[in-house]
Write a structure and sequence with these properties.
WH-like_DNA-bd_sf; RecG_C_sf; Winged helix-turn-helix transcriptional regulator
Length: about 350
């Protein structure tokens, strides 16, 4: 922690420091650039958004702090070493399933190696394999659902990878208990970062070079909305509030599962969602942010998601989240395709906002 404080006082970051005694070639740099763009494309759903993804170049990596140009010579930084999986004493992600609510009895355990982005994806898929799968009825259709919000699971693990302290010797641990999913990352909160600030959306990157690379690859949200979205998602799922814990040099997030029996037999829920909710029922579920974007969609149905983001002062991922949420709630629907279509509001906005 002392080394980190010294670097912070000098406005320097461990991930942007040169990785000593590590050679790098132009072909290796090109390979990383290509891999990062492939990941960004894989994590982008709409063709119109995919077309906007630019190539990563050597200069891009230098501007992010993944490479460093010193006196005309290119050096790899610690971020480069982590993004390529070539860091000396490369950290891993440790995953495990435990019987009960403590670590006394292992059911299964795995360690994931490779680049940090590969580790993150592998750990995420591991959790999906181990949690319950249920189903709900949306109108006339059966829809499979996980017991925990999958976007939040992914973001928790990704944020742990992006914001952990790489000066600490430990590994990220992802543990699944009977009552919770627990994600623990080495490194206490940075100066001026508090749990209450995080819940309001405050973010201070510990590893800005990695954060920039992850943001480009659509792995993390760089504007600090991850924790507020986590609480919103858990509330929508009917789950207990998550718990944020800063302790003993580590930071932990607990996402609590429903108590045994609430998710149905063998993970199959009997809960159904009716095709036509009453206006009163919909109104009771609307947050202030729901109302803001719903009114904007009502007034400007042909706007693009990026235009909505600009109008609201939000980032694009946040807009996508709320539009997807309101489609699920059958408050809006998309008419036509993503290029020439428009949004249709399925309820009277003035009634929903009263």
């Amino acid at each position: 922690m002392l080394k980190e404080l010294i670097l912070e006082g000098q406005n320097r970051y461990f991930d942007s420091e040169i990785c000593q005694n590590m050679p790098v070639s132009d072909s290796e740099i090109e390979e990383l650039c290509k891999s990062m763009k492939e990941t960004a494309l894989k994590n982008t759903w709409q063709d119109s958004e995919k077309a906007k993804i630019k190539d990563v170049t050597k200069n891009t990596l230098i501007s992010w702090g993944v490479l460093k140009d010193a006196e005309g010579k290119i050096y790899p930084t610690n971020a480069y070493a982590l993004l390529t999986g070539k860091m000396p004493q490369m950290p891993v992600i440790q995953c495990g399933v435990f019987k009960g609510t403590n670590r006394a009895h292992f059911v299964d355990r795995r360690e994931f190696e490779g680049s940090i982005q590969e580790q993150m994806e592998a750990a995420y898929q591991y959790v999906l394999e181990k949690i319950n799968m249920g189903m709900t009825i949306m109108g006339m259709y059966r829809q499979d659902v996980y017991e925990l919000p999958t976007d939040s699971i992914r973001e928790l693990i990704a944020n742990a990878v992006a914001h952990r302290s790489y000066l600490e010797p430990g590994n990220i641990q992802v543990a699944l208990f009977d009552d919770r999913l627990e994600v623990t990352s080495p490194g206490m909160l940075l100066n001026n970062v508090t749990i209450s600030k995080m819940m309001e959306g405050y973010s201070k990157p510990r590893n800005p070079a990695i954060a920039r690379a992850f943001a480009y690859m659509k792995i993390i949200e760089k504007w600090g909305t991850g924790i507020p979205r986590l609480f919103e998602a858990c509330e929508e799922y009917g789950l207990p509030k998550p718990e944020l814990v800063d302790f003993d040099g580590d930071f932990r997030v607990n996402m609590y599962r429903k108590v045994k029996g609430e998710f149905g037999v063998n993970g199959v829920t009997t809960q159904t969602t009716q095709t036509h909710q009453s206006t009163q029922s919909k109104k009771s579920t609307l947050s202030d942010d729901d109302k803001k974007i719903l009114e904007l969609v009502h007034n400007y149905p042909s706007m693009s998601q990026r235009e909505y983001a600009n109008e609201l002062g939000w980032n694009l991922d946040r807009v996508k989240y709320y539009l997807r949420k309101m489609k699920t709630q059958e408050l809006i629907k998309r008419v036509g395709n993503s290029h020439s279509g428009y949004w249709e509001v399925l309820a009277e906005v003035n009634q929903l906002q009263n």
